[in-house]
Structure formats: C-alpha cells, structure tokens
Design goal:
By secondary structure, the protein is α/β, with parallel strands linked by helices. It folds into two domains: about 280 residues, Metallo-dependent phosphatases (Purple Acid Phosphatase, chain A, domain 2, 4-Layer Sandwich); about 90 residues, no CATH class. The chain is about 30% helix and about 15% strand. A seven-stranded mixed sheet has the order 4-3-2-1-11-12-13. It has a four-stranded mixed sheet with strand order 5-8-10-9, with helices on one face. It has a two-stranded antiparallel ribbon with strand order 6-7. β12 and β13 form a beta hairpin. α1 packs parallel to α3, α6 packs across α7 and α7 runs antiparallel to α8. The longest helix is centred in the middle third of the chain and has 16 residues. The radius of gyration is 20 Å and the shape is globular.
Length: about 400
C-alpha cells in the first residue's frame, strides 16, 4: 500500500513528540512540564486537517517520533505502551485528524527512536496498537527491529527517520539481546529530569554535543559522558532510573550501572557499521553523509535519487545557507532551472522550541520533474525547492 492514492504530492513530517498527560501537568514532585510539544499542538492539528482535505495530496508520511516514550524523568515510571499518549486529551485533535488521514488511505508512518519498541518482542504489540488506533494506516516496520523505510511506488524516493545512522539513537543490537534501547534513551530521561525540576528548556542535542566534545578522546568515553550528563541534571551516579518491566532491565537501575552496561558501545558500533556513515550525535551534516553513503552514492540503488530523513529537528544547518542538498546545482533561486542528480532533504520538527517545517514532493508528469520543497507552517512558506527528472 505504498502508491499515492489521491494526488501527486507527498507530504513528509517528523519529530512531533506527543507526550502523555503528566508531561504537561506539573506536580509537586515535578513542578515544571517537560513535554516537547505543547504550544504547537493546534498548529499541527490544523495542518493535518488541511492535508486530509487537499485533493492534490496523495500521502502524508510521518517519519518517526510521533509519540514520545523517551522524555520522562528518571524517577517516574517509563511508558512501555503508547496508550497514555494517545489518550492525553491535549493530543485529541492531532489523533482525530490522523485517523481521518488513515481512513482515507493517506497516512504512512515509520518509527523513529522516541517511539520505537523497547525490544524486538514488543514490535508485534506496537504494530497492533498503531493499526488499531489508525485503521487504514500504512505502518512500515520490520518484524525483528523497530525500523522502516517508505518507498512510494513509481518514485525514486526513500524516506526514514534517520536514527539508524546515529551512535546514541540507533536500535542497540549488541548491549543486551533482550532489549534494543540505545544509550540516547537514558540521556533523554536524565535531561527530562533536569527540565522537570528547573523549568529551563534544554536541547538534548546541545547537551550531548557539549559532553561529546569534552569526553570523546577519553578511554572510558561512554561511561564518563553518561555520568557527566547525570551530574548536569543534579543526579549522582548512584541515583536510580525506574525501568518498570522494560525487557532486559530490572525494575530500577543505577546510573553507573547503565554507564557500565554500555561501555562497549563504540567498539560494537565500529565492528558492525564499518561500511556505514555515522552521525555520532544526530547532526545534520552526518545524516546527509549517511544518506549519500547508504542511498545516493556510488554502488547504491540506482532507483533512488531522493532521500528524506527527520531526527535532527532542523531542516538546515545553523549556517545561513540552504541545506536541501543537491548535486550539480548551486544554491540559488527558489525555482531552479537545472535538475539535480540527487537530493537529500530533512523534514525538521514540530516541537515548541523550533520552527515547524515539512517536506513536500510533487511528481509532475507533464514536465517530467519531481520537485522537492521544504516549507514552513503556518503559512506554507517555501524555504527551498529543487528537482530531479522523473
């Protein structure tokens, strides 16, 4: 069910990060909300309604992190299922409009890292939940690992979340045979603890990059980094993270035990990913390099010339130039005159601290052009446009 069933446009969004009710409602123990999506909820619900009604939109593809099971303080029970997020009244408009898209066979969804199953054995339950919540959805996820790639029929395009190429966020197939939780899960929970107690918004990637720069040359890089993130959150290494019944873990685990458990991450990653590009901390340049290595470069599938990822929470680099990557074309006007050989684009995010962006592709049979546009919302303002030949 991968063909465009209505119109010739495909819409790609990602990194929505809906949270449960407690993440929005401060309590005595956690006096500040820590959910990443609050003020942009209405915007997203409106956007989804517009795309549901648009006759020229064939598919709306969510490239991961629709639900957020990671941003939970360490001293709260984790979310092992997605029900509490779906049932959060604040998310009602989003959920309803996603149901309408699914009912019209317009909705595609691939998992990201914040909404992936905690272990391979959980994948059937996650698939059942998604299909029951959004009847008619095309939920693309492998059977043995929480990963999927959207490949629309008749289009040379591949779209996924992008976390597979990130050391701290790819499903961890080495540390514990019963779990696929990566180290990034624990870092997210430490940062959520800090936010819930201080009320100061914290960018997970900013914190991670800061400590990577400080500790990356140490022999015990992974151990030292996690302990430093914990101390930054106001926790010592003996503090416990509640894990409930997550496979591969006891009901609670000390921070230093987590650090010791993942000590071999760099070695295992290097042994397994020797031919893959790696974005250690989910940076945009690293993901673009991964897209070219895996999909667009020499020796890759000739039937792919467009790749779209999410994960970075940014559609362009911090430097003031367009990041919609194309070959054989200089950055220039919004309406290019020459085709690119290949295009990489990033869908950005909808979380409160960032501009809301999305990618729109349009296959124009008459001109034999396949356009890739990055737009912002509200306003659907065009940020950049490139094209390849059909």
């Amino acid at each position: 069910m991968n063909s465009a069933v209505h119109g010739n446009k495909q819409i790609f969004i990602s990194d929505i990060h809906m949270g449960d009710e407690r993440s929005m409602n401060p309590s005595g123990q956690h006096p500040h909300p820590y959910c990443w999506l609050q003020s942009n909820i209405a915007n997203l619900a409106k956007f989804l309604k517009e795309k549901s009604l648009a006759q020229d939109v064939g598919r709306v593809a969510i490239l991961g992190d629709l639900f957020d099971q990671w941003v939970i303080p360490t001293d709260l029970d984790p979310l092992t299922k997605l029900d509490a997020i779906r049932n959060n009244p604040a998310n009602g408009g989003i959920i309803q409009n996603l149901k309408e898209l699914a009912d019209s066979r317009k909705l595609v969804y691939v998992p990201g890292n914040h909404d992936m199953s905690a272990s391979p054995k959980d994948i059937p339950d996650t698939k059942a939940f998604i299909n029951a919540t959004f009847p008619g959805i095309d939920f693309i996820c492998e059977d043995e690992r929480p990963f999927g790639v959207y490949r629309p029929d008749k289009l040379k395009l591949a779209a996924e979340h992008g976390n597979m190429y990130c050391l701290f966020n790819a499903p961890d197939a080495w540390t514990d045979p019963h779990s696929c939780l990566p180290l990034g899960y624990f870092i997210s929970r430490l940062v959520a603890y800090k936010v819930s107690h201080t009320g100061r918004p914290e960018n997970y990637l900013d914190i991670l990059r800061r400590f990577i720069d400080e500790f990356k040359l140490r022999d015990d890089f992974i151990y030292d980094l996690l302990i430093a993130v914990a101390e930054d959150a106001g926790l010592d290494e003996s503090a416990e993270l509640k894990m409930a019944d997550i496979s591969g873990f006891p009901p609670a685990i000390r921070i230093d035990e987590v650090a010791s458990k993942y000590m071999g991450l760099m070695r295992d990653w290097d042994n397994d990913r020797i031919d893959a590009a790696v974005a250690v901390d989910g940076d945009l340049a690293g993901l673009q390099a991964a897209a070219y290595r895996v999909y667009l470069g020499p020796g890759t599938d000739p039937d792919i010339n467009i790749v779209i990822f999410g994960h970075t929470h940014a559609w362009k680099d911090e430097d003031p130039y367009p990041f919609l990557g194309g070959s054989d074309q200089e950055d220039g006007p919004a309406l290019p005159s020459r085709p690119c050989k290949a295009i990489y684009a990033n869908s950005g995010t909808w979380i409160d601290s960032k501009p809301c962006t999305y990618v729109e592709t349009e296959a124009d049979e008459e001109s034999q052009r396949h356009y890739v546009r990055v737009k912002s919302y509200p306003g659907n303002r065009l940020l950049q446009e490139l094209f390849v030949t059909l």
